[in-house]
Amino acid sequence: MNNRASSYNSFIFTHIPKCAGTSFRKYIYNISVLNGIEKKKIYIPGTFDIPNNKNISQLSKEECNALAKRSVKVLADHSKYKEHLQHKITIEKPFYYTILREPVNRFISHYNFFYFKDGNKKFKNKSLNEIKEDDLKEVLNQLANLQMNYLANIKFFRSFGLENVLKVAKYNLQHEYACFGILEKMEASVDLLKENLPKWLSSKETSFPIVNSNKQGTTDIDPKIIELIKEYNQYDIELYKFALLIFEDVLHQKSKELPASITPPKLN
User: Fold this and answer.
1) Which architecture does CATH list for 5-255?
2) Which of 185, 186, 178, 147 has the alpha carbon at shortest distance from 23?
């Protein structure tokens, strides 16, 4: 984590799918309004009549140009790290924030929401235990290591080498993100965020309700399928372990009333 609270002029939330991002968008929207930030300077799809399908990556060139003129101060959408710059949208000195989730559970939640619930006839109303192995591998190829890809944002990541993409994702999480949360440790994550937010975005919110929560656990799924999910998401699993090391160290130092600077784990 890289916290220089007094030096941030804006806030960007990297919303990785199925990592409590919908809840967090509502949370940061409420905080922004309570702090008197102008409507035109807040861009959070799903609020202020902005459709959910208007993430920066989904905008037309004209829409991006219009957004660039609004001097956005708070951005929360499904944009990868620094994706706004690729669309020529300048956001000054951002406080980057994201939430990570245990990768197997994230994949299961993603499948259940976007494939089981809303997918085509090959997947709709079919659990992971019911789909063919080839179809499962198709989904895994689409969704594998999604958290790493969001934090690294390397366009041709396979040709770049997944080990190298992982190094970039780790570096960005540790050095470019001012703070981050862990879904499985949400209460501690929110407390840590409140302590580190810039003063102009100070949090008066006391609760953080989780919406769109997925109730299915890994015990409901064939162990062979779980192992296949782990195999395909090995880099997300490594990233998540890395994030937990940093997060737990920060909490440990906080419990000893020490500054939240940490001795970084080595990037392998």
Assistant:
1) 3-Layer(aba) Sandwich (3.40)
2) 186
